[in-house]
Specification:
The chain has about 325 residues and is an alpha/beta fold. Helix content is about 30%, strand content about 15%. It has an 8-stranded parallel beta sheet with strand order 2-1-3-8-7-4-5-6, with helices on both faces. It is globular and about 55 Å long.
Amino acid sequence: MPDPSFPQPQDAALIPRFAGLPTFMRLPISTSALGVDIGLVGVPFDGGTTNRAGARHGPREIRNASSFIRRIHHASGISPYDLARVADLGDSPVNPIDLMKSLDLITGFFSEIKGHGTIPISAGGDHLITLPILRALASTTPVGMVHFDAHSDTNDRYFGDNLYTHGTPFRRAVEEGLLDPRRVIQIGIRGSIYDPSDLDFAKAAGFRIVFIEEFVKRTPEDIIAEAREIVGDKPVYVSFDVDAIDPSQAPGTGTPEIGGFTTFEAQRMVRGLQGLNIIGADVVEVSPPFDLSNMTSILGATLMFELLCIVAARFQA
């Protein structure tokens, strides 16, 4: 039976899933991370987008789509709400017309979450949001990262001297000492590039890049076994850009690349991360204006639940 002292999702047998205020997984909203083990957070920011905007609307639609998610993981049997105190912590503040101010606001919001010992699982927003989150979570020591994406996001600058876009966060994170590049693996990389040197920084820094051509010759479980070896038992962040998945299954994203992996391959890989020392995670680049039948928002909600379950497993007695 659920622990009555833990926050619980609304009971769909009492309040239909199409009714009530939309929150992540139909959980209570908490205005503070105090006493919360795992916080679900929205970051409605796409000021780092270089082409098709819209990911700022991702958190709202993912919340709505998460009403489809039930209590218990069908494969693992994990009921995260019975293992950990989980709540919707609302949205990070952002400034839609001031990119640098937004980065500071996001860092401040997540610093407070970290200060309460809460593990955040976030819904973006474009991929630049990971940089200010890492500024908060990795402020004292660099962390490893398991990164699912079609793109390396290690470019240097766009449009002259713009250092902060959704194509640059992990270059900046290495430069700022937030990521240990020898403990970073990027899975699903593919698509055309601007210049032959585009991936030189990531390779020179020590990132392990798994191109999609290599991925399809192996199994998801094999790839994740390697990922576990790379990140080890030290703190690790998990970042999942939905454009890692083929756009036939995730059309609602700003920078689609054909030839990606499937939603089930994604689930298998995330499940394989259980037991790692995960300090935070995000699902980014869900862009509802480009979605069809909410399928990408449902994907985002489901990936958040997969991440929630593997993080909650750490709280098992």
